[in-house]
Predict the structure.
Amino acid sequence: ARRRPAGRALAAACVLWALTGCGPAGGDPANGTGAPDADADAAVGRVTPEALAASALAAAQGVTTSFLMDRVHVLASDDFAGRDNQSPGGVAARQWLAADLANLGLQPLFASGYAHAFDAGVNLCAKVPGSDPAVAHELVVVGAHYDHLGTVGAPKSQCKASPPGSPHADDTVCNGAVDNAAGVAVGLAVARALAQSAARPRRSVVLCLFDAEEDGLLGSRALVKRLQGPASARDGAPALAEVVAMLSVDNVGSEILPGEASSFATDVEFSHALRAAVKRANDATGMVTWPVSSFFVGQEGGGRSDHLPFREAKVPVVFLGSGSSAEYHSTADEPGVINQSKLLGIARHAVVLVADIANAAARPDLVAAPQPHLDDARALVSLAGQVLANPKALGLNPTQVELVKGWRADLQAWIDTPPTTDAQWAEYASLVKGILQAVYLVVGG
C-alpha cells in the first residue's frame, strides 16, 4: 500500500496548500537533539538553565492578545494605505513603528538609531542586550517585514481586488493584516517580553522590521550586506559572523483549513539544534508548530521571506508561518481574517524558541546537506485528518475524498515503518516532494 504514485496527491493538493504559503516548508535531518549542555551553561552564567527557561516561559505567558491585535489594527488600517515601500503610507507606518520601539524601551541596534536606510526603503532594528558577558556579543535576529502592497491599480502594485459580490469588492487597499502586520506584532511581542523578563537571555536578541520584502527581500538583503561590511560601514552594529540564528515571522495567524490551530516552522532541516528547539517550544507552550522541509517544495532559491538572505549567508534560520489563506495579497486581508488564539500561541511559542536559542550552551549547527525526515509526513497526515473530518465544507467530491484517504495511508505507512535504507528514504522523499510540488503548482504557482 505504500508505493502509490506521488502524483495521486494532486486532487488533494487544493485543500492542503498551506505549506507553500508565504515561504517554503522546512524541516531537518532527524537525529540531532540540540539539547542545551546544562553544566556548560551553568559554568558561564550566574542564572541556571532551568531558571532561564522558566523566565522565558513566564515572559511568553505574559504576551496578550490585546498587545498583538492593537498593533495589527494600527498597521493594517487604511491610514497607512497598504504600507508600500517608499509610499507616504509606508513612511507613516515606519514612523509609528519607530515610536513604538522607543515606547517599549528597546535599544537601537545602530549608533545612529533604529533606522537602516537602503535604496528601496528603511529597515528598523532594535536590540535586547544579552545578560552573559561571555556571549552577549552574539545575536539571535528576529525579523518581520512591515511593508505590503499598497492599493489596487497603483503603479507596479501586486494588490489584488476582491471578486464582485464579496464583502471587500469595493475596497482598494491591501491592508496586509496577516501579511505581515501580524508578523510585526509577534516580533514586537518577542522583543518586549524578553527585554522585560526576569532573567534576560544570555545572548543578545535583535528585532529587525524589514522594508521592501514584497519587492524581492530587498530590506533583509540590504541588512545582510551591511553586516558583512567593515566596521566603519556597520554604524555600531555587530558583524554578520556574530549572528547565531535568524527567525523570520511572516504570514502568521491565518487559517488554511477552518479552525486549523497548528502552524509551521520551515528551513530547520539546515540545523539539528533549531529543529530540536522548535519541538521543545512546542512542549513548553502547547502550540503545535510543525517542522517541515523547504527543500521539498522546489521554489526558486528555496525561500520567499526574509530568512533566505541569512540562510544564503550560512546563518541557521527558522521561518515561522501559518500558510497563505484565500485572502493572501488581496484587499480582503483584514484583521478579521486572523485567528487570534492561534496568533497568541505563535507569539508565545516564538518567545520561548528565541530564548532557547539565545540561552543555549553552543551556537546552532548548520547542516550542509539536509536529508528528509518524517515530520513532513506527520504534518501532512494531521492536515489530511482535518480535511477528512469535514470534506463537504471544503468542496471535496467522493473521488477526491478517496484520494486523500489513500494519500494519508501512504504517509502513515512510512511513519509506522520508517525508512532504513537510502533507497527507502529516496522513495519516501519522492512521495512527499510529489505532494508538496503538486500543492505549489495548483495553488502557489
Residues 190 and 350 are 7 Å apart (CA to CA). Strands lie at 107-108, 115-118, 121-128, 139-145, 204-210, 243-249, 263-266, 289-292, 317-321. Confidence is low (pLDDT under 50) at residues 1-45, 441-445.
